[in-house]
Design goal:
The structure holds two protein chains of two kinds.
Chain A lengths: L16 H8 L4 H10 L4 H12 L3 E3 L15 E3 L14 H14 L6 H13 L4 H16 L3 H18 L23 H16 L6 H15 L4 H4 L6 H4 L3 H5 L9 H6 L4 H6 L1 H14 L2 H15 L5 H13 L11 H11 L8 H21 L1 H9 L24 H17 L11
Antiparallel strand pairs in A: 1-2
Helix pairs in contact in A: 4-5, 4-6, 15-16, 16-17, 16-19
Chain B lengths: L21 H7 L6 H21 L5 H4 L13 E6 L5 E6 L5 E6 L3 E6 L4 E7 L7 E4 L5 E5 L4 E6 L13 E5 L4 E6 L5 E6 L3 E6 L5 E6 L5 E6 L7 E6 L4 E5 L5 E5 L6 E6 L5 E6 L4 E5 L4 E6 L8 E6 L5 E6 L4 E5 L5 E5 L6 E6 L6 E5 L3 E5 L1
Antiparallel strand pairs in B: 1-28, 2-3, 3-4, 4-5, 6-7, 7-8, 8-9, 10-11, 11-12, 12-13, 14-15, 15-16, 16-17, 18-19, 19-20, 20-21, 22-23, 23-24, 24-25, 26-27, 27-28
The chains are: A mainly alpha, B mainly beta.
Family (chain B): Belongs to the WD repeat G protein beta family.
Protein name (chain B): Guanine nucleotide binding protein (G protein), beta 5a
InterPro entries (chain B): G-protein_beta_1-5 (IPR016346), WD40/YVTN_repeat-like_dom_sf (IPR015943), WD40_G-protein_beta-like (IPR001632), WD40_PAC1 (IPR020472), WD40_repeat_CS (IPR019775), WD40_repeat_dom_sf (IPR036322), WD40_rpt (IPR001680)
């Protein structure tokens, strides 16, 4: 039983909420349009006006098939609410057939090529009701003849505008296309959902919340700290590759470089996660830890990450390796975990699964974060790195701005990875330690 | 009957928590509780929760942001236009190398581009139309995609020009309705998916095994995003039930839930620090939700914006929020002050997807006008 078949009824979902908003503006539509006319120079009002034309709320008189709002003196007219897109009439094949029939009867040869094609297609498809179509068309034409000529012309224009939206000519975007249908709410699952809601609410009521003022200050601090690192906000040195066609910025900030940039080294001091996420940062930190004789912590953490994110089939093997190298008494790289966590982990290792090392990993992570990381930032190793780091010169705009630099391609990561895998394969054959091979 | 087909190895089955199926869950509800009773209880709890949340709300974001300098003139242009799709572009993702992207479209084509040179490097034709989800693997060696086939498949990227990528395709995820979004977790080995069947799921790529499933949405789930946190264990999803839920990947539990939007949530994206996330909805607004304060803290909307938001993303520092809209434009918001900084024109039809590049130098948009654009 699929969930799809359970969907019945369901509540009304606003998929094109924009139309609801326009309906609310119905009675002030006049005022809005007037305002647009006054703000002609504003690109946004022109854009919004264009949307109104595209969706059929206003239609052009001069070139009815060109649904664009021109910022000149071309005349437009408001569409009658009867034909507004927000009414969401089905605009059935029958209605369209009647419209085309009317056009055909009124003036032979008035139908455009694509309309003729559609007319004959409809004639085939709904042939069984064709008498009704022709009869309706004739009736409507007769009724319209009794109106004043001016009214008749307006009505014809309005109807034409309506069908240009609902049955656009070939090559024109169908603005009423809303993409895939999204099935309605699963009303039959309400019991299950109410259960979840109640459970979630109860949990939430017991949650510790932080005052807004504290949380929001956090955003300010973060944005300020990273401001210089945000290329879209402050630009980047030597230049933004997308703008200048020069990939120097990427070359200078490649994963492993002889000398990193200053911004990059500064970023390592923002948080422990920033340091670990950067391959060079992690390498530097490892060097520091080795000096302090606590490198096993980082090796352990890396091995645990490998378990968490690696292949399911290798979990058992990897956990065994971790036990041998880091947890077993007398292990080569024994890590110092508190006894409670150690007991829990050893117990869990008996039935290894993906998350069995989580507690131990977190313990070591926070140990490094609170202890080794702050000391690293104060160390000579880091300070020297920061001093050596380069600050690229801003590339001056080229003398001939119209000459475009050649855009060079770069080796695909897929290629470098296959090479690396081959090299690693060779190294493995030579008996190297596989734990050192992880690269995150 | 389990709605998910589990291709798990017998030995590991005991470590996989199987989700309660909808049928099982309804049986757990005491028989004498009527629907109405449940509803009133959930309504009362919800209003109580709102009261509790309001108690600690002592200031608004834009008030706190008054002391921050305003942003000046903002100029961003299309720097690259990628043409090659034959139909609506529905989704795209960046490679970690900061210049390659993968994109998918309505006609079933998935293309990998070097966006910098605009060269197409790989192309795959899926056996289904409406490929609504695609993702680049962290290693850069594979892409995942899916849509109306209800599956998520992984294609290793081969550099052999003669090799047919479809030959090495691996079917990983299996849902009972369309796949709306997919994302690799920290490695190439696991994929998180969301589907029109109302659930999200975590899969092991190698074996195709379901590792965890996430139930709680009352309608189609349209989007998801993984949290950039230290412990890396949560993600947020948004759906047609107007809710944004935060989930624990290990236990499958919904940790937090937010329901303030007035229509479908099309896109969710974490703030770079991981303490908040933004959402974009068909109700024409983007909203910011703070996870520690446990509430919505900002709404980004304007009277002149009446079309829905299809996708959102933050700039690197989190100061700017980019939104792709159904009226063909991109609105750029000042996250702190709540004002719109700029409006960008260029696409000739709906903007369906928007992602900022991994190093924040540019962002890419995909549109129903069959093209992708890089803006910087």
């Amino acid at each position: 039983m699929t969930i799809n078949t359970l969907a019945k009824g369901g509540c009304h979902r606003e998929q094109m909420a924009c139309f609801r908003k326009v309906r609310l503006l119905d009675h002030v539509l006049f005022g809005c349009i007037y305002l647009f006319l006054l703000l002609w120079c504003s690109t946004e009002s022109l854009h919004l006006g264009n949307m109104l034309v595209k969706y059929g709320y206003i239609y052009p008189l001069k070139e009815p098939r060109c649904l664009v709002l021109r910022p000149d003196e071309s005349p437009y007219r408001f569409q009658t609410p009867y034909f507004w897109t927000s009414t969401r009439w089905p605009a059935s094949e029958l209605d369209y057939a009647i419209y085309l029939a009317k056009k055909n009867i009124r003036k032979q040869g008035e139908l455009m090529e694509y309309e003729k094609e559609r007319y004959s297609l409809l004639h085939k498809r709904i042939n069984h009701t064709w008498d009704f179509v022709v009869m309706q068309a004739r009736e409507q034409l007769r009724a319209s003849k009794q109106r004043r000529k001016a009214d008749r012309i307006v009505l014809e224009c309005q109807e034409q505008a309506y069908w240009l939206i609902n049955r656009p000519p070939p090559g024109v975007n169908n603005v009423l296309d809303t993409g895939l249908e999204r099935p309605n709410s699963f009303s039959c699952r309400v019991t299950l959902v109410s259960d979840f809601i109640i459970e979630a609410c109860r949990k939430a009521l017991g949650r510790n919340r932080v005052k807004s003022s504290i949380c929001l200050e956090g955003f300010l601090k973060y944005s300020e700290q990273y401001l210089n690192h945000d290329p879209i906000m402050q630009g980047c040195l030597p230049s933004n590759p997308w703008i200048s066609d020069d990939t120097a910025h990427w070359t200078m900030n490649a994963e492993i470089v002889p000398v990193p940039t200053r911004l990059r080294v500064e970023r390592w001091s923002f948080s422990f996660m920033e340091l670990l996420n950067d391959a060079m940062g992690r390498r530097e930190f490892m060097t520091y830890l080795e000096k302090e004789f606590s490198a096993e912590n980082l090796y352990f953490w890396q091995a645990c990450e490998d378990v968490r994110h690696g292949e399911s089939s290798k979990i058992v093997e990897k956990v065994e390796d971790i036990y041998k190298n880091f947890l077993a008494p007398g292990a080569a790289r024994w890590v110092n975990i508190d006894s409670k966590t150690m007991d829990k982990t050893l117990e869990g290792i008996k039935r290894p699964h993906r998350f069995v090392m989580d507690d131990a990993q977190m313990h070591i992570y926070f140990l490094m974060k609170k202890d080794s990381y702050p000391r690293y930032l104060k160390s000579d190793l880091y300070k020297n790195m920061l001093a050596k780091a380069i600050v690229p010169q801003e590339t001056k705009k080229s003398v001939f701005p119209f000459m475009r630099r050649q855009r060079h391609s770069s080796p695909s990561p897929a290629q470098t990875a296959t090479q690396a895998a081959e090299e690693e394969g060779l190294a493995k054959g030579a008996g190297a330690n596989s734990a050192a091979g992880s690269h995150f | 009957k389990n709605p998910f087909r589990c291709r798990s190895l017998p030995a590991q089955r005991k470590y996989m928590r199987s989700p309660p199926t909808p049928e099982m869950a309804t049986q757990e509800v005491p028989l004498n509780e009527t629907l109405a009773h449940l509803k009133t209880e959930s309504e009362t709890l919800k209003s109580k929760l709102e009261e509790e949340r309001a108690k600690l709300h002592d200031v608004e974001l834009h008030q706190v942001a008054e002391k921050v300098e305003g942003l000046g003139q903002f100029v961003m242009k299309t720097r690259r236009t990628l043409k090659g799709h034959g139909n609506k572009v529905l989704c795209m993702d960046w490679c970690k190398d900061k210049r390659r992207i993968v994109s998918s479209s309505q006609d079933g084509k998935v293309i990998v581009w070097d966006a910098f040179t605009t060269n197409k490097e790989h192309a795959v034709t899926m056996p289904c139309t409406w490929v609504m989800a695609c993702a680049y693997a962290p290693s850069g060696c594979a892409v995942a995609c899916g849509g109306l086939d209800n599956k998520c498949s992984v294609y290793p990227l081969s550099l052999d020009k003669n090799e047919n990528l479809a030959a090495k395709k691996k079917s990983v995820a299996m849902h009972t309705n369309y796949l709306s979004a997919c994302s690799f977790t920290n490695s190439d080995m696991q994929i998180l998916t969301s589907s029109g069947d109302g659930t999200c799921a975590l899969w092991d790529v190698e074996s195709g095994q379901l590792l965890q499933s996430f139930h709680g949405h009352a309608a189609d789930v349209l989007c998801l995003d993984l949290a950039p946190s230290e412990t890396g264990n949560t993600f947020v999803s948004g759906g047609c039930d107007k809710k944004a839920n935060v989930w624990d990947m290990r236990s499958g539990q919904c940790i937090q839930s937010f329901e303030t939007h007035e229509s479908d949530i099309n896109s969710v994206r974490y703030y770079p620090s991981g303490d908040a996330f933004a959402s974009g909805s068909d109700d024409a607004t983007c909203r910011l939700y703070d996870l520690r304060a446990d509430r919505e803290v900002a709404i980004y909307s304007k009277d002149s914006i009446i079309f829905g938001v299809s996708s959102v993303d933050f700039s690197l520092s989190g100061r700017l929020l980019f939104g792709g809209y159904n009226d063909y434009t991109i609105n750029v918001w000042d996250v702190l002050k709540g004002t719109r900084v700029s409006i960008l024109f260029g696409h000739e039809n709906r903007v369906s997807t928007l992602r900022v590049s991994p190093d924040g130098t540019a962002f890419c948009t995909g549109s129903w006008d069959h093209t992708l654009r890089i803006w910087a």
